[in-house]
Amino acid sequence: FDAPKGRGPYGITVTGDGTIWYASLAGSYVGRIDPVSSVATVVEPPTAGQGARRVWADSRGRVWVSEWNSGNVSRYDPRTGSWKTWKLPGERPRAYAVYVEPGYLLYRRDRYLVAHPFDARRREFTGEPALVVQNADIEYPKQGRVPAFKAVEDATFEIYPGEIVSVVGGSSLG
Fold first, then answer.
1. Which of 51, 120, 140, 147 has the CB geometry, 3.0–4.6 Å to 68, for a possible disulfide?
2. Cα 148 from Cα 138, distance rounded (Å)
């Protein structure tokens, strides 16, 4: 496909109906690729120059966007064409990636994984963490011919009551 603004995908997801969505960090837009024609169209997030970095489709077909430059997380509903936007907590937040679980909004901020209780109806973050891990390293020593290696480096995250957290690989949330 041809990217409409000359800058293509940085993050990509697929909704249940087979529609492909992508984020263009360099172009600061979200794109929708029609599964039949392979034509890409621009869907402009409400915040100008937001730096759409990653997208995630939830079970209802809505597309969540992590906005690197603005520090927002936004949600687009293709059925209604409407957007909702939430500013992430903290000073100068930068949302690297986003994943939505009922009652929680998970996002990666710099090298910091945050699982924050979130009430989408009231449009607010709720609750406090039960555990905060900062700058954690996990290193495995040399075993036979296998050299020593670092499996986790400088990991920082918060765990909230009632949640389960695992560390996964990949450039984003796994």
1. 51
2. 11
Tens-place pLDDT, residues 7-34: 678 888 998 888 999 999 888 999 999 8
User: How many C-beta neighbours within 10 Å does residue 103 have?
Assistant: 14
How far does the chain reach from its first CA to its final CA, in angstroms?
26
The answer to pTM > 0.70 is no
Where does the chain show beta strands of DSSP type E?
Answer: 11-14, 20-24, 29-33, 40-43, 52-57, 63-67, 72-77, 82-87, 95-101, 104-109, 112-119, 124-125, 131-140, 149-159
Cα distance between residue 106 and residue 163, in whole Å: 11
For residue 168, the one-letter residue type is: V
Question: Quick one: DSSP state of residue 6?
Answer: S
> How many CB atoms are located within 10 Å of the residue 174 CB?
10
79 near 64, Cβ under 8 Å?
A: no
Q: Return the SS3 of 50.
A: coil
